[in-house]
């Protein structure tokens, strides 16, 4: 399923949703970092925490990384993101808005790969919720990273089996 087949609330290439408090999705286009940060900010939010994961120039045993390519099973990723947003709201009910956007396709070193932005009235909830979202996204979402470096190309060394919602961590 491609982004164009999904409702607008899932497509970072279009404007953020007007009718929801979550902006979730994957995109082959550069992530709208400034727009997402502005969108999560509300009059009641005294804290906005933004996490930005970027493509770096190295990986364990792989110096001189030149690029990353992300592949995603989009429909499953969106289900995971919806589950994570709902779970986050149960754990931190004060959270006002959530944005979780992940890039797909080829990224150059320095480009944003994933964005998590959370707004809440106070900073502890915003920090805790943002950390939960990025950590669980990395564990649960069917997104795969391929690295190209000076010595070749292969899947990322940090790949782990995908964990489903409610699964007990190892």
How does this model look, in words?
This protein has 170 residues and is of the alpha+beta class. It is built from three helices and eight strands; from the N terminus they run βαββαβββαββ. The chain has helices at 33-40, 74-91, 123-140, and strands spanning 22-27, 47-54, 67-72, 97-103, 105-108, 112-120, 143-149, 152-155. The strands form two sheets. It has a four-stranded mixed β-sheet with strand order 1-4-6-2, sandwiched between helices. A hairpin with a 2-residue loop joins strand 7 (143-149) and strand 8. Helix 2 runs antiparallel to helix 3 (123-140). The protein is elongated, with a radius of gyration of 16 Å. The relative contact order is 0.22. Mean pLDDT is 88; it is low at 1-10.
Largest beta-sheet characterization: 4 strands, mixed
Structural class: alpha+beta
Helical coverage, percent range: 25-40%
Number of strands: 8
Adjacency order of strands in the biggest sheet: 1-4-6-2
User: What is the overall pLDDT average?
Assistant: 88
Radius of gyration: 16 Å
Poorly predicted runs of 5 or more residues: 1-10
Task: Describe the global form.
Answer: elongated
Binned strand content: 25-35%
Instruction: Give me the strand/helix succession.
Output: EHEEHEEEHEE
How many helix segments? 3
Distance between the termini: 31 Å
């Amino acid at each position: 399923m491609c982004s164009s087949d999904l409702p607008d609330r899932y497509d970072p290439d279009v404007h953020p949703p007007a009718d929801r408090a979550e902006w979730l999705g994957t995109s082959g286009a550069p992530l709208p970092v400034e727009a997402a940060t502005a969108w999560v900010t509300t009059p009641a939010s005294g804290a906005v925490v933004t996490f930005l994961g970027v493509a770096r120039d190295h990986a364990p045993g792989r110096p001189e990384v030149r690029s990353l390519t992300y592949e995603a099973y989009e429909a499953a990723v969106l289900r995971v993101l919806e589950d994570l947003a709902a779970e986050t709201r149960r754990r931190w009910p004060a959270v006002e808005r959530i944005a979780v956007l992940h890039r797909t396709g080829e990224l150059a070193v320095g480009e944003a790969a994933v964005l998590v932005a959370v707004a809440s009235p106070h900073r502890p909830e915003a920090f805790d919720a943002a950390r939960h979202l990025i950590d669980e996204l990395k564990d649960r979402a069917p997104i795969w990273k391929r690295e190209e470096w000076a010595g070749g190309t292969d899947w990322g060394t940090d790949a782990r089996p995908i964990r489903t919602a409610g699964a007990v961590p190892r």
